[in-house]
């Protein structure tokens, strides 16, 4: 810790105040550094689609009026990038809100774990009839102190990844809920490509992608797991990943059971 104001070598209120001041300044500095990094990372990510759109617009400007093939190709490519930009901005907003703790207070709106897990799984099965989606839920439903819409958002991110990174005709995915050591656990398991051991410690960091080009092609911005982590941790939960390259990935969420009325 930097000593911004000298702290007298005594145990009185002045010394206490000095220590407190230095701690507050440290926290402030750390939060400024983090914000600056966030803005730098976000700007960098926003630039990629913008540069691609710019490229296509100048192609259109030069050749598009005479060449219908260029016109069609560049228009489609630009539209796709605008779609990506939109999704990226929406994800950045969610992450920023989750990071600045603008979320409803814990315990105010508990959710039923099995109910939400079933809802999201059924929704995915309808949207992606080709996947084999198993549900194994504990017998009696339990509540956790996370609002249903955030638990839904988290499970959507995990199921979306399980499908995206399962490069087979029929991705096999399981959603399991369990009571483990007095905690409520939700596991999303796939048999997809897995994550190399050297990347595993970093995939929860924002903008981290194992294979940037591949993830981008699949529509990923490297923000999904960072958003999931912020949301889960805001409601006293934890998120962890187990993965074997070439064999599959299990993402596990754990929460204390909600005991309020
Ligand atoms: P993205 O939007 O790129 O998918 P995420 O933050 O959700 O970003 O995930 C970060 C990276 O972790 C992904 O780019 C991918 O490389 C890897 N990853 C996430 N989930 C899985 C999974 N279920 N199987 C394999 N790799 C995964």
From TrEMBL:
Is Nucleotide-binding included in the keywords of this UniProt record? yes
Q: Where in the cell is it found?
A: Cell membrane
Tell me a GO cellular component.
plasma membrane
Residue span(s) of domain Histidine kinase: 41-259
Catalysed reaction(s) here are: ATP + protein L-histidine = ADP + protein N-phospho-L-histidine
User: What are the alphabetically sorted keywords of the record?
Assistant: ATP-binding, Cell membrane, Kinase, Membrane, Nucleotide-binding, Phosphoprotein, Transferase, Transmembrane, Transmembrane helix, Two-component regulatory system
For the HAMP domain, which residue ranges apply?
1-33
E.C. designation(s) = 2.7.13.3
Top EC class for this record: transferase
Q: Give GO terms: molecular function aspect only.
A: ATP binding; phosphorelay sensor kinase activity
Q: How does it sit in the membrane?
A: Multi-pass membrane protein
The answer to keyword Membrane applying to this record is: yes
Protein name, UniProt field: Signal transduction histidine-protein kinase ArlS
Name the source organism: Ectobacillus ponti
- Say which residues of the entire protein are included here: 206 to 466 of 466
């Amino acid at each position: 810790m930097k000593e911004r104001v000298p702290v007298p070598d005594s145990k009185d209120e002045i010394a206490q105040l000095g220590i407190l001041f230095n701690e507050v300044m440290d926290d402030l500095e750390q939060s400024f550094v983090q914000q600056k990094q966030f803005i730098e990372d976000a700007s960098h990510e926003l630039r990629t689609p913008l540069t691609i759109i710019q490229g296509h617009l100048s192609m259109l400007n030069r050749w598009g009026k005479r060449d219908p093939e260029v016109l069609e190709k560049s228009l489609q490519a630009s539209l796709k990038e605008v779609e990506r930009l939109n999704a990226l901005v929406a994800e950045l907003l969610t992450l920023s809100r989750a990071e600045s703790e603008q979320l409803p207070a814990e315990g105010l709106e508990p959710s039923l774990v099995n109910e939400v897990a079933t809802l999201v799984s059924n929704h995915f099965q309808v949207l992606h009839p080709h996947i084999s989606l198993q549900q194994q839920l504990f017998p009696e439903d339990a509540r956790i102190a996370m609002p249903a819409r955030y638990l839904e958002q988290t499970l959507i991110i995990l199921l979306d990844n399980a499908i995206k990174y399962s490069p087979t005709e029929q991705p096999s995915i399981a959603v399991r809920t369990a009571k483990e050591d007095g905690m409520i656990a939700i596991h999303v398991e796939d048999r997809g490509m897995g994550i190399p051991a050297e990347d595993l410690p970093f995939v929860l960091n924002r903008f981290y992608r194992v294979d940037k080009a591949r993830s981008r092609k699949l529509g990923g911005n490297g923000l999904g797991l960072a958003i999931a982590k912020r949301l889960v941790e805001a409601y006293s939960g934890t998120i962890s990943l187990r993965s074997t390259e070439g064999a599959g990935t299990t993402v596990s969420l754990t929460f204390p059971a909600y005991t309020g009325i």
